[in-house]
Design a protein that fits this description.
alpha/beta; TIM Barrel; 8 strands; globular; binds pyridoxal-5'-phosphate
């Protein structure tokens, strides 16, 4: 007991004040999540819709849920009514689907553009070319129920710290480009979500504003 609380407090004291800690609670029980909640924590991340919609009704309403995993378009309607931030917006068709459901739910939904920064093929995300094409063709005004809030990325799963750093630097460059080109006067576009248990220190050095941390809070997942 107290283990989760201790980890949260240690991480919060370590992180700069303006970096948001998202506790990644995938595979964790509502009891474990409540331990973090009772330590004052409110931002949690889940990567699977089924799991998120099973847990959300069992937990306090003031939790801010971040969706951090690939979202299928046919599942958008389940999360739009309550989600706080969709960090894993990875295609134009998904953005359109979220906008449509947001209109129905009469909500504005904050989204991050997930950008493919890893060397691994299987990871999801936009390329910079796709993002530039989308916004320069006037894509965003049509999606009036979305609040474009920044970018998200996942580094390659590797022990090579320099490679990870290069990938995070690239994400920060992407953020700066998109910001300057399309959101220069929009203060809501401000987040760079990068960094997990193994690499958050590097991410923070490279400009992260949101870190997504699971195992360093809850312990190793089964
Ligand atoms: C699981 C996961 C994390 C957290 O991973 P840890 O290594 O346990 O900190 C962060 N981001 C995403 C997208 C994840 O799926």
């Amino acid at each position: 007991m107290g283990y989760i609380r201790d980890n949260i407090e240690r991480l919060k004291s370590e992180l700069p004040e303006d970096v948001l800690l998202v506790a990644v609670s995938k595979t964790e029980s509502p009891e474990s999540i409540m331990e973090a909640y009772n330590a004052g924590h409110r931002n949690f991340g889940e990567n699977r819709v089924q799991e998120l919609i099973a847990k959300q009704p069992l937990l306090p309403r003031d939790i801010e849920w971040h969706l951090i995993g690939h979202l299928q378009r046919n599942k958008v309607k389940y999360v739009v009514p309550f989600v706080s931030l969709i960090e894993s917006a990875d295609s134009v068709r998904l953005l359109e689907a979220v906008n449509k459901e947001a209109l129905k739910a009469d909500r504005k939904i904050r989204v991050l553009l997930q950008i493919h920064i890893a060397k691994e093929e299987h990871k999801y995300g936009f390329t910079m070319e796709e993002i530039e094409q989308f916004f320069s063709q006037g894509g965003s005004p049509k999606l009036s129920s979305l609040i474009f809030s920044g970018v998200m990325g996942m580094a390659t799963f590797t022990d090579d710290r320099e490679q990870i750093r290069e990938e995070f630097k690239y994400l920060t460059d992407c953020y700066t480009n998109v910001k300057n080109s399309f959101f220069r006067n929009d203060e809501r576009f401000r987040e760079i979500s990068m960094g997990m248990s193994g690499d958050y220190a590097i991410a923070v050095e490279e400009g992260s504003t949101i870190v997504r941390i699971g195992s360093s809070i809850f312990g190793e997942r089964q």
